[in-house]
Amino acid sequence: MDDRVTKKIVIDAGHGGDDPGTSANGIIEKDLTLKISQYMHDRLNDLGIENSLTRVNDESLGPDIRPGRVQGFYGKGDDVIVVSNHINAGGGDNQSVTLKCNLLNKNQLDKVLFI
Ligand SMILES: [Zn+2]
């Protein structure tokens, strides 16, 4: 069996609601992470890979909500991959943007959901 179909993926759109993340030049991190996450969700669905999104709109997911949301889909077993999307401003001149996708395993999950 193709190993991909045994994995379940949680796609976390970083920030949201009253937490915009970083912003510059008209780009707001929470909006871009949502668009990227929705694209990933659609593409994985096209490939038949089970996945879920932590948010589908401009929703606040504070530290009291996000971990439970992530783990609520498939638990925190070895068959679950969590991708947390963030867009970090790069360099000191604000002329670059870094896409940061965090692949989290169950041991990292509790520590690294809020970058
Ligand atoms: Zn971020």
In brief, what are we looking at here?
The protein is 27% helix and 29% strand. The chain is of the alpha/beta class and 115 residues long. Zinc ion is lined by residues 14-15, 21, 29, 86, 115.
- In order across it, which strands form the biggest sheet? 4-1-5-6
For CATH, the homologous superfamily is named as Zn-dependent exopeptidases
- Helical residue percent? 25-40%
Q: Quickly give the structural class.
A: alpha/beta
Name of the level-1 CATH class: Alpha Beta
CATH architecture: 3-Layer(aba) Sandwich
**What would you call the shape?**
globular
The H/E string reads EEEHEHEEH
Bound molecules: zinc ion
- The separation of the N and C termini measures 35 Å
User: How many β strands by DSSP?
Assistant: 6
Low-confidence stretches: 111-115
Classify the beta-strand content into a percent band.
25-35%
- Rg, Å, rounded: 14 Å
**Mean residue pLDDT:** 81
What is the domain tally?
A: 1
Sheet with the most strands? Answer: 4 strands, mixed
CATH fold node name: Aminopeptidase
By DSSP (H or I, 4+ residues per run), the number of helices equals 3
Question: Would you write up a description of this structure?
Answer:
The structure is a single chain. The chain is an alpha/beta fold and 115 residues long. The protein has a single domain, classed as Zn-dependent exopeptidases (Aminopeptidase, 3-Layer(aba) Sandwich). Helices cover 27% and strands 29% of the residues. The protein has three helices and six strands; from the N terminus they run E-E-E-H-E-H-E-E-H. The protein has helices at residues 29-46, 66-74, 106-109; strands at 8-13, 23-24, 27-28, 51-53, 80-90, 96-104. The strands form two sheets. The protein has a four-stranded mixed β-sheet with strand order 4-1-5-6, sandwiched between helices. Strands 2-3 form a two-stranded antiparallel ribbon. A hairpin with a 2-residue loop joins strand 2 and strand 3. The protein is globular. Residues 111-115 have low confidence and may be disordered. The structure holds zinc ion (ZN).
